[in-house]
Amino acid sequence: MTDVQGGTAKSHGLRDYVAWHDAYADPSSSLSARLRQVQAQISAWLDRTPGKVRVLSSCAGQGHDILGVLERREDDRARVTGALVELDPTNAAVARDWVARLGVEFQVVEADAGTTSTYAGLVPADLVLLSGIMGNISPADIERLVHTSRQLCSPGATVLWTRGAQDPDLGPDIRRWFAQTGFAEVACDEWIEGTGMRVGVERLEADPERLVLGQPIFTFTR
Ligand SMILES: C[S@@+](CC[C@H](N)C(=O)[O-])C[C@H]1O[C@@H](n2cnc3c(N)ncnc32)[C@H](O)[C@@H]1O
After folding, report:
1. What's the pLDDT tens digit per position in 46-86?
2. Measuring from each residue's beta carbon to the nearest atom of ligand 1, which residues come in under 6 Å?
3. pLDDT by residue (tens digit) across 19-29?
4. How many angstroms is it from 61 CA to the middle of ligand 1?
C-alpha cells in the first residue's frame, strides 16, 4: 500500500526513498562519499574486464552508481548492458530517463528485488551491485542475500556490496559469509573519507548456482 507525501509515493513503514537520493546533491554528505567509492570500484572493474559485460543492480534507486559511471565513460556505453531492479516508481522513472539520455541498453524493472523470481531473464550478470541494501534488512536476510547472490552471477562475476559501521557492525560477518559462499575478496574499503561507510568487492571463485525461482531473499525493514 502506498500513499502520496510531498508529491512522491512512499511505502508504509519505509523511508522516503525518493528524498533519500537528495543527499547525492551534497558532495559533503557521507552518501556522496560512499557513491564516489562505489563508482571508483565500478570503474576499476570496467578497466580490468574487457569486452561485452552485463550488470545487475538490485534495489538500484535512481541508478547513480552504474549510470553515473557510464555518464563519464562514454566509450564503455556500447559494451555494458544490464538491468536495474527498483521498487519505487518515481526512482525507476528517473533511472529510465537517465538510461534513455545515455542511450545505453539497460532494462529498468519496477519490481521486488527481494525474491528470486524477479531475476528471471535478468541474470546471470558479470557485475552484481548490492548497494544500499544491507543497512536496511535483517542480519538473517543479509546472510541469505549473500548466499543467493551466487545465483545471480556468471562465472567469475564480481559482487559489490555496502554496509556502514552502524550497530551492530556486521562487516566481519558479511565478509565471512561471502568467503563461505565461494567468493574471494577483492577489496573492502572502510571508513571512506572519514565516514562510517564501507564498500566491499568480491569475486566469485566457485561455480555459479542455478537461479531457483520463488525464493524469498530479503525484506526492507526501514
Ligand atoms: C538505500 S537506497 C539505495 C539506492 C541505490 N542502490 C544507491 O546505492 O544509490 C535503497 C533503494 O531500494 C529500493 N527498494 C526498497 N525495497 C525494495 C525492494 N523490495 N525491491 C526493489 N527495490 C527496493 C528503495 O526504493 C531505494 O531506492
Report:
1. 999 999 999 999 999 999 999 999 999 999 999 999 999 99
2. 17, 20, 59-61, 64-65, 85-88, 91, 112-114, 131-132, 220
3. 999 999 999 99
4. 5
Instruction: Output the CA 191–ligand 1 centroid distance in Å.
Output: 22
What is the domain partition of the chain in residue ranges?
29-204
Exposure letters 121-147 (e unless 16+ CB within 10 A, then b): ebbbbbbbbbbbbbbbbeeebbbbbbb
Quote the pTM value: 0.95
CA of 129 to the centre of ligand 1 (A): 11
Atom of ligand 1 nearest to the CA of 118: 20
Residue 13 is predicted with a pLDDT of 83
CA of 102 to the centre of ligand 1 (A): 22
Nearest 5°: the CA angle 72, 103, 55 is: 70
Residue 11 bridge partners (DSSP)? 2
Tell me which residue of 130, 172, 131 sits closest to 34, measured CA to CA: 131
In terms of CATH, what superfamily is 29-204?
A: Vaccinia Virus protein VP39 (3.40.50.150)
DSSP string across 43-107: HHHHHH--S-EEEEEET-TT-HHHHHHHHH-GGGTTTEEEEEE-S-HHHHHHHHHHHHHHT-EEE
